[in-house]
Amino acid sequence: MKILHVVQGYSPAIGGTERFVQKLSEQLARQYGDEVTVFTTNAAKNCEVFWLQSEPTLPVGIEKINGVTVRRFPIFNKLGHVRHQLSKLADKVNLPFKDWFRALFNGPLVFDMTHEIANFKAEVIMASSFPFLHMHYALRGGQRSHTPVILCGALHVTDTWSFERPMLYQAIQQADGYIAHSTFERAYLIGRGMPASKIEAIGVGLDLAQFANADGAALRQTYGWGNAPVIAFVGQLTKRKGIHLLLAAMSHVWPTYPAAKLLLAGAPGTYMSQLAQTIAELKTKWGNNSIVLINNFSEQDKANIFAASDMLVFPSQEESFGIVFLEAWACRKPVIGLRVGAIPAVVTEGVDGWVVEPDNEAALAQTICQAIANPSQRAQLGEAGYHKVQQRYTWEIVAGKFREVYRRMAKSF
After folding, report:
1. What is the 3-state secondary structure (H, E, C) of 25-94?
2. Which of 77, 92, 301, 377 is most buried by a 10 A CB count?
């Protein structure tokens, strides 16, 4: 098949959707010999570059990466402060089309992407993810060229400022198909009046081989952890991922388990200065070796981080799925998430992890303490998580399901 994927960023840009589209594209090219092209922006790190000129960018142009043709478009990221103020003003006075003011702030503003999508000869177009404007570029481009458009929205329904936008749900209604990351997302859209017949719930994928040789011994030795319990957070080091809640919870864990270590691993962002200050204060109280911060690590390092840990705690309230849970399970580690949004549809309470109430640091601390106190239960839950990945979420399985939707959609046009 000739497939066009449209996404806000692509490797080496960082983010769950960026990684997801990269892996899906490469798997389709490798497993089926499909001709996969990706239209994306020249973001070098993350989406903050869409409104911050201080963030780095990549060269504009076309390159071949692991069998996938990647075309990076230049973004317009000037007037970010003005765009932000206009979006806030539109909200404050409740202007009509205030959601478009939010969208113009978020971006990415890519002036020729719709035209180029319309001129690209593909059998099917898939775009991911909302709330960014490239989703609308893909839809308009596909409508102009009479090419089926499938949206994979990755909705973070608790983030109302970003996702409670009429324009977003109008786009979903107009799309030819929709792929949800979870049964929760599918049910949510059906509840908002979207036709059930055009929504598939598939999920994201993982390469188990990448984690097969993970070894945490060297990391434990490097930091002098010995047999101490290690609680890991792996993800973007931003406030919206719930790091502040985890740090608050650890202040309740350390009095009971003073030897426990907190490992924060992820890419830094604008939240780093505030995070660094909080970490320094906690280290002063609980010991310099109580918290370890690791930035900008390789994929193999990531596997070793999970292997060195006893559990993953990921207290984000804004996940459409949470691929980090799969990564922890690939290393047979149990996970702790929040009972919000899609998380309970991914993590099965008491089977492969725990889910706790959001914004409740005491409940999170209690669950962490329970996990520390029960190594046999941790092992049981981690093993169950591994088998869940094996049966549902390998890239071979996920790519096959995506391709079947693509094939069916292309055949119907």
Report:
1. HHHHHHHHCCEEEEEEECECCCHHHHCCCCCCECCCEEEEECCEEEEEECCCCCCHHHHHHHHHHHHHCC
2. 77
